[in-house]
């Protein structure tokens, strides 16, 4: 990150940078409504200490050994990820008054690396939607076009980073909650393979899950990944040893000779024209850079993807929401009630064992389509935009017919079902509404380096868009 270099050279003070970000939030967050609260004074004290360490180091009086890699860097934190002593309501009146007793493991790890949590970002209630709005925090809007959502559930994090409120923000993903906001806001979002990053019980054991960050560059995403991954005492399912990614890439040259599979629809999605245009731009750029690009038929069934994933969420996420609400569904937002009712109905029809058998079939279809290729590239979301302020309680009209649940308009879920695959979402262009579109790069299980290599090439070949709030 350029800002870290500026800290080390004393060209920029961590205190001045933090103050500039807080001033920016105060001036611009009325447009996007992405920030819940700012932890100003505690963050300034940490920034002042970081500035002292940098100054001492420059005069040869620094700490022994290397400085923490993110020393003094302001960090935006998704409200789902606890910050000790701060509210932990998940945007729900069911948890009114809840306060975090410890940092979430990824917050803890980023803090240990020198980052300074200074502001928290909005989510939908219990992070159960692909838009971001609650009665508690209002409607979060896309900094590229406020008529539309930045996505969800990490929509506040995405809007904040895209608006220039900070260099990175924490995010999570059980159904595209990192990748969908990345697609809608022109950012980089990594869905880690299951077990790479730690979380907290009970949903740390949800094998669809991954926690990470949203950034504006591939290298920044790789840097953050290296600081988050690895076994953690609070999460029994994390795996080791921690995989170390490169943080410097050869750009377009890195894909020469790679074999890239491409799927326009995974066999079952109704994809908007502007999304396909973005995919076509990526395909052409990779081919020009020397990759062998081949279109493949993944052959998924949307009905099966929806059936098995909805049953999974009914057994786990929805059941956890009901537990938090004391069994009173009336405490939840209308869209949360719809999510619970829809997914619980599937869970009643599909046992956990039957869902595992269905998941295995989908995993094998993806593996077969990727055989002989280094990565698979496909759109992140079939739908280019979702309107801000809508609850999407009714079936969603699409050119090829109605979808009974709007989540079916995104293409992220198959790779939560096949959740050992690393998936990097990157921008692929900007649609006619001014909202970005994106692709997701899918690697073989735990082959994380491959998706970053391709992502870095796309970043060089098709420079990522900046929101109007960033001056782009």
Q: What percent strand? A: 5-15%
Q: What is the number of independent domains? A: 1
Described by its quaternary structure, the protein is single chain
Distance between the termini: 19 Å
What's the CATH topology label?
Answer: Amidase signature (AS) enzymes
Architecture overview:
The protein has 472 residues and is α+β, with helices and mostly antiparallel strands. The chain has a single domain, classed as Alpha-Beta Complex (Amidase signature (AS) enzymes). It has 14 helices and 15 strands. It has an 8-stranded mixed beta sheet, sandwiched between helices. The chain has a 3-stranded mixed beta sheet with strand order 1-3-2. Strand 2, helix 4 and strand 3 form a beta-alpha-beta unit. The protein is globular, with a radius of gyration of 21 Å. Residues 18-451 form the Amidase domain. Belongs to the amidase family. This is Amidase. InterPro entries: Amidase (IPR000120), Amidase_dom (IPR023631), AS_sf (IPR036928). It comes from Brevibacterium daeguense.
From the structure above, extract its key features:
472 residues, alpha+beta, Amidase signature (AS) enzymes, 8-stranded mixed beta sheet, 14 helices, globular, AS_sf
The gist of it:
This protein has 472 residues and is an alpha+beta fold. Helix content is 36%, strand content 15%.
């Amino acid at each position: 990150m350029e800002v870290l270099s500026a800290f080390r050279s004393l060209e920029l003070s961590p205190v001045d940078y933090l103050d500039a970000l807080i001033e920016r939030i105060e001036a611009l967050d009325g447009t996007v409504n992405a920030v819940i609260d700012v932890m100003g004074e505690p963050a300034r004290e940490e920034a002042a200490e970081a500035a002292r360490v940098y100054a001492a180091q420059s005069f040869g009086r620094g700490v022994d050994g290397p400085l923490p890699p993110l020393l003094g860097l302001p960090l935006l934190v998704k409200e789902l990820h606890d910050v000790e002593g701060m509210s932990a309501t998940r945007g729900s009146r069911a948890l009114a008054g809840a306060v975090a007793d410890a940092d979430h493991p990824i917050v803890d790890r980023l803090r240990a690396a020198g980052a300074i949590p200074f502001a928290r970002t909005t989510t939908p209630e219990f992070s159960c939607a692909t838009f971001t709005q609650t009665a508690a925090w209002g409607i979060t809007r896309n900094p590229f076009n406020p008529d539309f959502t930045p996505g969800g559930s990490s929509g506040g994090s995405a809007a904040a980073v895209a608006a220039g409120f900070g260099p990175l923000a924490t995010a999570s993903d059980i159904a595209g909650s990192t990748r969908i906001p990345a697609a809608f806001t022109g950012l980089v979002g990594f869905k880690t393979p299951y077990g790479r990053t730690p979380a907290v019980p009970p949903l740390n054991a949800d094998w669809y899950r991954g926690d990470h960050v949203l950034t504006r560059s591939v290298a920044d995403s790789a840097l953050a990944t290296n600081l988050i991954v690895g076994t953690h005492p609070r999460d029994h399912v994390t795996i080791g040893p921690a995989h170390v990614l490169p943080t410097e890439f050869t750009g377009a040259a890195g894909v020469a000779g790679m074999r890239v599979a491409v799927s326009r629809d995974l066999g079952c999605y109704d994809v908007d024209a502007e999304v396909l245009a973005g995919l076509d731009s990526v395909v052409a750029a990779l081919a020009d850079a020397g990759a062998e690009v081949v279109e493949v038929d993944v052959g998924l069934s949307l009905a099966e993807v929806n059936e098995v994933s909805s049953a999974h969420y009914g057994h786990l996420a929805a059941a956890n929401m009901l537990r938090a609400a004391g069994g009173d569904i009336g405490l939840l937002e209308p869209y949360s009630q719809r999510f619970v009712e829809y997914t619980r109905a599937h869970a009643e029809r599909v046992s956990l064992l039957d869902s595992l058998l269905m998941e295995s079939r989908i995993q094998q279809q993806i593996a077969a389509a990727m055989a002989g290729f280094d990565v698979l590239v496909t759109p992140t979301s079939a739908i280019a935009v979702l309107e801000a302020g809508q609850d999407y309680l009714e079936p969603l009209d699409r050119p090829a017919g109605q979808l009974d649940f709007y989540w079916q308009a995104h293409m992220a879920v198959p790779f939560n079902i096949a959740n050992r695959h690393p998936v990097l979402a990157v921008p692929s262009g900007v649609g006619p509404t001014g909202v970005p579109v994106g692709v997701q790069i899918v690697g073989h299980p735990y082959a994380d380096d491959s998706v970053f290599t391709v992502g870095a090439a796309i970043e060089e070949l098709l420079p990522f868009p900046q929101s109007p709030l960033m001056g782009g």
